[in-house]
Automatic annotation (TrEMBL):
Residues 1-23 form the signal peptide. Belongs to the EMP24/GP25L family. This is TMED5 protein. InterPro entries: Emp24-like, GOLD_dom, GOLD_dom_sf. It comes from Leiothrix lutea (Red-billed leiothrix). PROSITE patterns: GOLD. Keywords: Endoplasmic reticulum, Membrane, Signal, Transmembrane, Transmembrane helix. The gene is Tmed5. It is found in: Endoplasmic reticulum membrane; Endoplasmic reticulum-Golgi intermediate compartment membrane; Golgi apparatus, cis-Golgi network membrane; Membrane. GO terms for cellular component: endoplasmic reticulum membrane; endoplasmic reticulum-Golgi intermediate compartment membrane; Golgi apparatus. Residues 42-123 form the GOLD domain.
C-alpha cells in the first residue's frame, strides 16, 4: 500500500499508530492539506516512511492574528527533529528511516485567535518509480531493433513527469501565498474602515464642540453689554 497521511486526535498524541476510522489521503507522493486550528489547540499528523527515502514538508499560516504557529517534527523513535516557535512558514527536508513520522501544529499559546494552516508533503525515493521501470522492461521485447533505447524513453518520461510535478508544486504554493496575501489585505481593509469611522466621529464631535463654544462666547458678550 502507498504512503498515507493520517490525522491523530489531540487525546492520542503519544500514539504513532493510526486510530480506527481515521481519515486518510489517497496514496500519492505529493499531498497538500489546509485546515483550521482553533485557539488553544494542537493538531498532529503522521506519515509512514521507508528507509533511505526523503520527506519534505512546507507549511504556511494563511490566516489568524499574528500569522504564527509552533511546529514540531518527530522521528519514529520520538526524537524531535525540527522545532519552529511562533513561525509563519517553514520548509524542512529530512532523510528518513522505516517508521511513522509525526508532525504537529501547536496553537496553545493563543487564547483567542484560530489559525488557518496550509501544508504540503513531498515524498521522494519511496520505491514506486523503480518498480514501474522494471514493469516496463518486463513487457517490452526487441528493444535492440529500435533507434531509441528503452532507457532513453524512460529518462525522457521521468524528466517530463518531474517537471510537471514541480509545476504543480509551484502552483500550489503560489495559491497558498495568494490566499495569505488576500487575508492580510482584507484585514487591513477592515482596519482602515474602522479607524476612518473613528476619525470621522472624532471630527464630528470636535466640530460640534467648536460650534457650541463659539456660540457660547457670543451669547456671553451680548449678556455683558445689557
Amino acid at each position: 500500500m502507498g504512503p498515507r497521511l493520517l490525522l491523530v486526535p489531540l487525546g492520542c498524541l503519544a500514539l504513532l499508530l493510526p486510530p480506527p476510522g481515521a481519515a486518510e489521503f489517497s496514496p500519492s507522493l505529493d499531498s497538500d492539506f489546509t485546515f483550521t486550528l482553533p485557539a488553544g489547540r494542537k493538531e498532529c499528523f503522521y506519515q509512514p516512511m521507508r528507509k533511505e527515502a526523503s520527506l519534505e514538508l512546507e507549511y504556511q499560516v494563511l490566516d489568524g492574528a499574528g500569522l504564527d504557529v509552533d511546529f514540531h517534527l518527530l522521528s519514529p523513535k520520538g526524537e524531535t527533529l525540527v522545532f519552529d516557535e511562533r513561525k509563519s512558514d517553514g520548509v524542512h527536508t529530512v532523510e528518513t528511516e522505516d517508521g511513522d513520522y509525526m508532525f504537529c501544529f501547536d496553537n496553545t499559546f493563543s487564547t483567542i485567535s484560530e489559525k488557518v494552516i496550509f501544508f504540503e508533503l513531498i515524498l521522494d525515493n519511496m520505491g514506486e518509480e523503480g518498480q514501474d521501470e522494471e514493469d516496463w522492461k518486463k513487457y517490452v521485447t526487441g528493444t535492440d531493433l529500435l533507434d531509441m533505447k528503452l532507457e532513453d524513453i524512460l529518462e525522457s518520461i521521468n524528466s517530463v513527469k518531474a517537471r510537471l510535478s514541480k509545476s504543480v508544486q509551484i502552483q500550489t504554493l503560489l495559491r497558498a501565498f495568494e490566499a495569505r496575501d488576500r487575508n492580510i489585505q482584507e484585514s487591513n481593509f477592515d482596519r482602515v474602515n474602522f479607524w476612518s469611522m473613528v476619525n470621522l466621529g472624532v471630527m464630528v464631535v470636535v466640530s460640534a464642540v467648536q460650534v457650541y463654544m463659539l456660540k457660547s462666547l457670543f451669547e456671553d458678550k451680548r449678556k455683558s453689554r445689557t
